[in-house]
């Protein structure tokens, strides 16, 4: 008799093992390997060749006709921008994001706008009841007779709703809440997620109907479930934002029908979510007079230029270890800039606390903000404001050079459009020249000039 052995599988990535282990060998997660029961008999391998059906023969690529993709607009300009112009018929779109960021609100608004133009939309929710969705729809003004709601967690019932309603647009919230009775495991498991996603994608391709799937995320921000889920879909979008601020960003991580460097801006309000077509003024302070320690820069979010104001505060301290507090910028990057200022410009900051922050809660991760951070710190150090028409961007090297960054022309055009007539960029070449051009050349150094070592 065959030996009856148990099978173990990881609940995060689906990795299988013949015996229990404490750590998954694929995703390296602890405590996720669980017993699945006795394995089923393996299927025999297919070795016999089968002729392709008529009309499905392999053809030379030169004889195939490349049809242009037709993008259907959803009515939300920022959403269409991220998708590359709209939703492609038959596309499978995966939208992920942290809990409470506004994924369901965004998709309900997109469903309502599609229903406004006469499209039949099916919104399936496995997390909320139809009454709860109706209450949110009343608050956001998303009540339309061609918008159908269903609260189901069974895959077969969802497929039945699709056959009955015959929608032109399908939204499933979320893929981790659906389960199939034909597959082992609970909802959200790797096998269930694979089966649910594969079935809905088959419906999308067979009916030429776009399907949007909402995906949960883990604590590290990645999509929960097997990695295969991201490979199956055509578009992967991530909806992010700080719950303490109203601003939201929609980014594309994968797009078979358009670019992957577009970013959509939204604002969460009491009546729903609102797109922000021009977010230029969201990250700039509105002080009537110039204040020391502030400098404007231009950051690139995808292919969009966003002006951001950097603020710095420098105060004396008697503590042996001065504080370096940052918000919206990388602490390691700020520490490097402070070291360059102290070594190359003789700015003594070792006995002062330095605080650096951005306006509006935006996060600056690109090195193009180095020059603005350095000028803001210098301005706060001497308590002298920078000109209000000045904007700066550029990467600072350890040698004190201002290096060029990508998108310089687009950054300059955006800065000039907002009234920044004085722009400091990589054309300055050196940090000391940028300091002089900003009007901070005198009175910056507070310690005795160090003598550089003679060259060997």
Automatic annotation (TrEMBL):
Domain RecA family profile: start-end pairs: 68-217
Region (Lon-protease-like), start-end ranges: 353-456
GO molecular function: ATP binding; ATP-dependent DNA damage sensor activity; damaged DNA binding; hydrolase activity; zinc ion binding
SUPFAM superfamilies: P-loop containing nucleoside triphosphate hydrolases (SSF52540), Ribosomal protein S5 domain 2-like (SSF54211)
Keywords in alphabetical order: ATP-binding, DNA damage, DNA repair, DNA-binding, Hydrolase, Metal-binding, Nucleotide-binding, Stress response, Zinc, Zinc-finger
Domain of life: Bacteria
UniProt motif RadA KNRFG motif: location: 254-258
Cross-referenced Pfam families: AAA_25, ChlI, Zn_ribbon_LapB
Chain residues that bind ATP: 97-104
Cellular-component GO terms for this entry: cytosol
GO biological process, one term: recombinational repair
CDD domains: RadA_SMS_N (cd01121)
InterPro entries: AAA+_ATPase, DNA_repair_RadA, P-loop_NTPase, RecA_ATP-bd, Ribosomal_Su5_D2-typ_SF, Ribsml_uS5_D2-typ_fold_subgr, Rubredoxin_2
NCBIfam families hit by this protein: sms (TIGR00416)
Family to which this protein belongs: Belongs to the RecA family. RadA subfamily.
PANTHER family from the UniProt entry: DNA REPAIR PROTEIN RADA (PTHR32472), DNA REPAIR PROTEIN RADA-LIKE PROTEIN (PTHR32472:SF10)
Entry comment, domain topic: The middle region has homology to RecA with ATPase motifs including the RadA KNRFG motif, while the C-terminus is homologous to Lon protease.
Physiological role: DNA-dependent ATPase involved in processing of recombination intermediates, plays a role in repairing DNA breaks. Stimulates the branch migration of RecA-mediated strand transfer reactions, allowing the 3' invading strand to extend heteroduplex DNA faster. Binds ssDNA in the presence of ADP but not other nucleotides, has ATPase activity that is stimulated by ssDNA and various branched DNA structures, but inhibited by SSB. Does not have RecA's homology-searching function.
Protein name as it appears in the record: DNA repair protein RadA
Organism of derivation: Leucobacter insecticola
Upper lineage: Bacteria, Bacillati, Actinomycetota, Actinomycetes, Micrococcales
């Amino acid at each position: 008799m065959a030996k009856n052995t148990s099978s173990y599988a990881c609940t995060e990535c689906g990795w299988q093992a013949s015996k229990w282990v404490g750590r998954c060998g694929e995703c390296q997660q602890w405590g996720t390997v669980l017993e699945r029961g006795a394995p089923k008999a393996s299927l025999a391998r297919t070795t016999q060749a089968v002729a392709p059906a008529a009309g499905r023969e392999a053809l030379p690529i030169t004889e195939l006709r490349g049809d242009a993709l037709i993008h259907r607009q959803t009515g939300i300009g920022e959403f269409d921008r991220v998708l590359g112009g709209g939703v492609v018929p038959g596309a499978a779109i995966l939208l992920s994001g942290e809990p409470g960021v506004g994924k369901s609100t965004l998709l309900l608004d997109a469903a309502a706008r599609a229903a406004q133009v006469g499209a039949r939309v099916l919104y399936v929710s496995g997390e909320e009841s139809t009454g709860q969705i109706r209450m949110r729809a009343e608050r956001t003004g998303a009540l339309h007779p061609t918008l159908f709601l269903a609260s189901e967690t069974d895959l077969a019932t969802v497929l039945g709703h699709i056959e009955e309603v015959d929608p032109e647009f399908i939204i499933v919230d979320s893929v981790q809440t659906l389960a199939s009775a034909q597959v082992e495991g609970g909802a959200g498991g790797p096998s269930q997620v694979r089966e649910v996603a594969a079935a809905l994608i088959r419906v999308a391709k067979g009916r030429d109907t776009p399907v949007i799937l909402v995906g949960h995320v883990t604590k590290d921000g990645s999509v929960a479930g097997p990695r295969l889920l991201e490979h199956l879909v055509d578009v992967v979008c991530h909806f992010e934002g700080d719950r303490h601020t109203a601003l939201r960003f929609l980014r594309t991580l994968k797009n078979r029908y358009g670019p992957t460097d577009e970013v959509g801006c939204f604002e969460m309000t009491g009546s729903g979510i609102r797109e922000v077509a021009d977010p230029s003024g969201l990250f700039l302070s509105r002080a009537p007079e110039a204040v020391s320690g502030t400098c404007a820069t231009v950051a690139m979010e995808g292919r969009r230029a966003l002006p951001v104001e950097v603020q710095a505060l420098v105060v004396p301290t008697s503590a042996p270890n001065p504080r370096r507090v940052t918000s919206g910028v990388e602490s390691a990057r700020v520490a490097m800039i402070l070291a360059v200022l102290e070594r190359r410009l003789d700015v003594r900051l070792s006995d002062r606390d330095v605080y650096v922050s951005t306006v509006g809660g935006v996060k600056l991760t690109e090195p193009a903000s180095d020059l603005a951070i350095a000028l803001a710190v210098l301005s706060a150090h001497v308590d002298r404001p920078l000109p209000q028409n000045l904007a700066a961007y550029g990467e600072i090297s350890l040698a004190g050079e201002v290096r060029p960054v990508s998108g310089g022309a687009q950054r300059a055009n955006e800065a000039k459009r907002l009234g920044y007539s004085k722009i400091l960029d990589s054309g300055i070449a050196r940090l000391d020249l940028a300091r002089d051009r900003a009007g901070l050349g005198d009175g910056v150094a507070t310690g005795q000039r160090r003598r550089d070592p003679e060259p060997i």
